[in-house]
TrEMBL record:
Protein name: Dipeptidase
Keyword Metal-binding: yes
Top-level taxon in the UniProt lineage: Bacteria
Organism: Faecalibacter bovis
UniProt keyword terms in alphabetical order: Dipeptidase, Hydrolase, Metal-binding, Protease
Length: 460
């Protein structure tokens, strides 16, 4: 693959310039104010795929935002790799915490990224990682070294649970037919120690409302006599996790598949320094479910977290009211054995029982997804391991990711193929937070590594 790697080296500056143009577009799928920006991003990706040499490039309409599709069939008898990624991004709030504009990409050197990192919303999740595949494909195609068939499916709704992709996949099974799905939307251990994500947690996401009086009340006139929905909601949420860090929803752990002692011992080999971990995120101590390490708590154990809570007066100065309404958004990360629909149902049934009769409780389920596991004996895993060894000159370790990509389990159900999660981000990239960034080392290393995945997968 000398010609491919030579092409990459000769075009690195252009690749980065094109990524910067992509990052300038605020493709926030969760906010209707950015609808046209999301559509514009799909158009730009379609252009980049066409320029890279993909055939049959389409902007496929869905019930929501479009899916960008493209392909290159070099030989129907050879394996087909389906590349999945997403072009939508998380909202940038809170804007005041960004050191530079979230959609004004800048490159800065950091302690972890001495060669520089690109700071922008979507740089690591997932525009930067998705774009590596477009550029790796271009390099292989322009160098006439593409060893297998490649298809692209780049969607615009991952950050809101991929609601439209479900029907798209079900209705386009022949178009999407493949031997393996390749995804870069996860992280690795470090720039010195590559890893492959062999597991994803599932997700159940809900919104709750607690209703009190028919209007906000004066806290002096009514205080002590009427229910305060914010106080009550806080108390209800506190009861969802006990003093051992265990989730109290009845039946929550019923179907959890526990790891063997041997599997936990393998996980313990992953390099991890608890002091560095605490320092990196500015906390004095850790917490979580008793009997598990930090790595285990963030990967093989289910969780429940409040993602936002509001109600009453939150403006400047004081306003002494008892709010009539209180709200919270709650996410539960799930592990193999748990079904998101079952867990959501259990939450809906249990949460209102924690409230006094003085208030009304409403639970609104949002999106969810199933957990996913990739065996280390899988052909795709082996190809990824060989590819990473080629460019990092070090053996990659298997690692379970704490995050969720809900659509991955659906791919296996509907398309019958496994997904290989070969991510190049780092946990320090602060995705979903202000000042998200992606190392230039990681961006270029991904472009260099992906061609080797195609090579080794075709040879297996």
């Amino acid at each position: 693959m000398n010609n491919t790697q030579k092409f990459i080296q000769e075009n690195k500056d252009r690749f980065l310039d094109e990524l910067i143009e992509l990052l300038k577009i605020p493709s926030i799928s969760a906010d209707t104010a950015y609808t046209q920006d999301v559509i514009n991003t799909a158009d730009l990706i379609a252009k980049y795929l066409t320029d890279a040499g993909a055939d049959n490039v389409e902007i496929c309409e869905t019930e929501g935002f479009p899916v960008v599709y493209g392909e290159k069939i070099v030989d129907p008898t050879k394996p087909t790799v389906l590349v999945y990624g997403h072009y939508d991004v998380q909202p940038a709030d809170p804007l005041e915490l960004w050191e530079s504009g979230p959609f004004e990409p800048v490159i800065k050197k950091t302690e972890i990224h001495p060669d520089g990192a690109i700071f922008a919303r979507g740089s690591a999740d997932d525009k930067g990682q998705m774009f590596m595949h477009v550029k790796a494909f271009e390099a292989l195609n322009k160098s006439n070294e593409l060893p297998c068939n490649v298809k692209f499916m780049i969607e615009g709704e991952e950050e809101i649970g991929s609601p439209s992709l479900v029907n798209f996949v079900k209705n386009n099974k022949e178009k999407l037919k493949n031997d393996v799905i390749l995804i870069s939307d996860t992280s690795m251990i470090s720039n010195e120690q590559p890893s492959i994500s062999i597991g994803l947690r599932g997700l159940s996401y809900v919104e709750v409302e607690v209703k009190g009086a028919n209007r906000d009340m004066h806290s002096g006139v009514y205080g002590g006599a009427v229910p305060n929905p914010l106080n009550i909601l806080a108390g209800m949420i506190a009861k969802l996790i006990n003093e051992k860090g265990e989730i109290t929803i009845p039946g929550f752990y019923d179907n959890v598949i526990e790891l063997t002692e041997e599997e936990r011992a393998e996980m313990a080999k992953i390099p991890f320094n608890i002091d560095d971990y605490k320092k990196s995120i500015g906390i004095a101590d850790i917490q979580g479910e008793e009997g598990y390490t930090t790595i285990e708590r963030t990967s093989i154990r289910p969780t429940l977290d409040v993602n936002g809570m509001w109600g009453g007066y939150i403006g400047e100065g004081a306003k002494t009211v008892i709010p009539s309404m209180a709200y919270a958004k709650i996410s539960m990360r799930l592990v193999p054995g748990q079904d998101h629909e079952d867990i959501t149902r259990k939450f809906v049934e249990y949460f209102p029982t924690l409230a006094p009769s003085s208030v009304e409780v409403v639970v609104k389920p949002h999106h969810g997804g199933k957990p996913y596991i990739l065996p280390t004996t899988d052909k795709g895993y082996i190809a990824a391991k060989k590819a990473l060894a080629e460019t990092f000159e070090k053996e990659a370790l298997p690692e379970r990711a704490g995050g969720s990509i809900p659509i991955v389990a659906l791919f296996e159900e509907e398309l019958g193929t496994k997904s290989v999660l070969m991510g190049f981000g780092l946990n320090s990239d602060v995705i979903h937070s202000p000042n998200e960034h992606y190392g230039l080392f990681n961006f270029y290393k991904g472009i260099e590594t992906i061609p080797y995945f195609f090579k080794y997968y075709t040879e297996e």
